[in-house]
Amino acid sequence: MKISFTKKQYISFAAIIVMLLIWKILALFLDSALILPHPEDTLVTVVKLFTDAGFIAAAGTTILRGITGFIISGMLGMAVGILAGISPGFNAFITPFLVTIRSVPVISLILLALIWFSPNAVPVFIAMLTMFPFICTNVSDGIRSVDPELTEMARLYRVPAGRIISEVYIPAIIPFIISGASSAMGIGWRAIIIGEVLSQPYYGIGTRMQEAQTFLNVDALIAWTLIAVLISYGFEKLIRLGERKIVVWKV
Amino acid sequence: MGMIRLIDSISRAGHPDMKIEILNEPMQVRKMMLDGSADYAILPTTMAAILYNKGLDYRLIAIPVWGTLYLFGSDTTITRWDDLRNKRIYAMARGMTPDVVFRYLLGQNGISPDTDITLDYSFPTHIDLANAVAAGRAELAVISEPLVSLVMQKNKNIRAIFDLNLEWDRAQGIPMAQTAFLGSTEMLKHPQQAEQLISAYERSSRWVNQNPDSAAALIVKYNILPDEEVALQSIPRSNLDFVRAGSIRSQIAEYLEIFYHMNPDIIGGKLPDEDFIY
């Protein structure tokens, strides 16, 4: 495989360098590992974390929570989204629910969840609630974006309902689902980690972050943050990859 | 609370250059030390060791409080440590003194904190946890005075189950040097002025133990607790005894060493050197 870079990739690369430079300059200026450790020291900490015995358990559990929350909210979101897309009445009924869930500050949900659920369930619940509205709204938007004349015509020519769904509706909503999934995941990871910091389950990135904060290990705190960013980025890539596969299959 | 008479005399004498702030959580005190706005501070000894090991310019003057932790709750079935097996016990944030002290004592009594019981950290601050216990949502919790007395007054079904300070004493043969009184190196550069404050705190602490009734009245007056009855109960449970750190170096080292063996991070990665103690 030949590796080649596009101009856009060069610019992104430069942006990362600039970020690291700003970090380095700030670290030099503040001159305290207690406030902001140097990027290279933090990198060493990241590498050390990878080899740490508890790393797989902590990161793996957080990822598992993310996937669980994503699957539950994905299924619920699609079911409700399809209904809302087909029936304007149901859409009008469900919209206030979605608006409410979306406007409630995430921290309120977490504080309530801390009272309602066990520490292991809190992050999953939070992930589910933050992701659900995105997926739901995008699916129903996708269905409504289908040209009504197209379905009308298909029905006139007595095209079976199964084919209408698989050849008209599904292709139309796939891009919406992908974009919904990607913004849901972006928000979801953040919510899961906040949930973990506060609920302190036995394993989890958030648990380790809270521990680092308690023990004033600022480098470890930033290292876990970088790992969280990497996980989020990895899943974003995965979703985009999935999109390309589906598009290819469609053609 | 041991400081209450000192607080009273400062407030009556109207020292504009002195200010005493009483905060709910150790983390809030730590923040004031990180940005250097605190000249003197009182916070858990483990946290003091972390700050010193991370290079902050504070030194340990004295241990003014010798254990304020209790296992308490509404569960009436517990009389021995073994009764705790398979129970869910709430503690404030992981890695903080109540958590690590309790874990240590569990281990000493043959109970694994990770497999034999469930430690739950769902209520992340002292106040949250106290409210949860008072509301009956946490049956067993490890918490510090004066919140123990406060919750027991609010909810009569709650009782102290184990005095962890006594249990510690039993396991270690010495009381636990739980709370630290620290001064910034800047302040301690003027030993005479520093000594005035240190001995005033020392006297105040002794006075509180000798005059709990008057002390309780002052504690309510300065809004530290809402109720004299609670204050009066909390004073003997708080083990106030101002002892200068210089006279108990080995006890402090022993206390920190226990946590060092559990997890070096609890005290900032290493045992603090000699200069830690003023």
Folded structure, characterized:
- The complex is a heterodimer of chains A (251) and B (278).
- The longest helix of chain A has 39 residues, at 161-199.
- Chain A has 251 residues and is mainly α.
- In chain A, helix 3 (55-86) crosses helix 9.
- Chain A has a single domain (38-250), classed as MetI-like (MetI-like fold), CATH 1.10.3720.10.
- Chain A is 84% helix and 0% strand.
- In chain B, the strands form two sheets. A five-stranded mixed beta sheet of chain B has the order 5-4-6-3-7. A four-stranded antiparallel beta sheet of chain B has the order 1-8-2-9, with helices on both faces.
- Chain B has helices at 4-13, 26-34, 45-53, 97-108, 126-134, 147-154, 164-172, 185-188, 191-210, 212-221, 228-237, 249-262; strands spanning 40-44, 58-65, 69-73, 88-91, 118-120, 140-144, 159-163, 179-184, 240-244.
- Chain B has twelve helices and nine strands.
- Chain B folds into two domains: 4-66 and 177-276, D-Maltodextrin-Binding Protein, domain 2, CATH 3.40.190.10; 69-172, D-Maltodextrin-Binding Protein, domain 2 (3-Layer(aba) Sandwich), CATH 3.40.190.10.
- In chain B, helix 4 (97-108) crosses helix 7 and helix 9 packs across helix 10.
- Chain B has 278 residues and is an alpha+beta fold.
- The mean pLDDT of chain B is 86.
- The two termini of chain B are 23 Å apart.
- Classes of the chains: A mainly alpha (251), B alpha+beta (278).
Strand line-up across the major sheet of chain B: 5-4-6-3-7
Q: How many distinct folded domains of chain B?
A: 2
Low-confidence stretches of chain A: none
* Uncertain residue segments of chain B: none
Indicate the percent of residues in helices of chain A: over 70%
- Element string of chain A (H = helix, E = strand): HHHHHHHHHH
Mean pLDDT across the residues of chain B is 86
